[in-house]
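Record 1 of the preview.
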Amino acid sequence: MSEKYKTKDRDGIYFISISVVQWADVFTRREYCEIICNSLAYCHKEKDLTLYAWCIMTNHIHLICSSPTLANTIRDFKKYTAKELFKAIQQNTQESRKPWLCWLIKSAGELSSKHEEYKFWQPGYHPILLHNNYLVEQKLNYLHRNPVTAGFVEEPEHWYYSSARDYAGSQGRLHITFIQ
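->
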């Protein structure tokens, strides 16, 4: 992993992206998005993760967050959610893409350097330190406008799985801390 994408500042606020293997559109079902939200809530409560902004897209997640142990927290988050999401896909009787998604996730595991049983997430999480107000605003706008740019909604706050609601003055799905 490049030195460019490591968390060096334990107190820093980072913009991170976590992507599904092969950019598969998994988060098109509420059940899968709820696994992500519940896990983020757990990390906030139990692992000292501070969320400033977040957005779940169909095949990736963006977070603006901080934690004294960010690398470990994200590692644990990815490990837990990979297991839970794979299990949810396998057990979902309504999932029309189940054979394909299971094949994709298992194939990614077999092809990985560790030859795992399955692999849900792409390696890494691409942390970018937001060391000034310009970067904070840029990434916050990018994150919240992602569903608008993708053509899913007309206004950022219309996307349920995002902190844009909080920033627009409504109650969002997860607890966030506003950036000062």
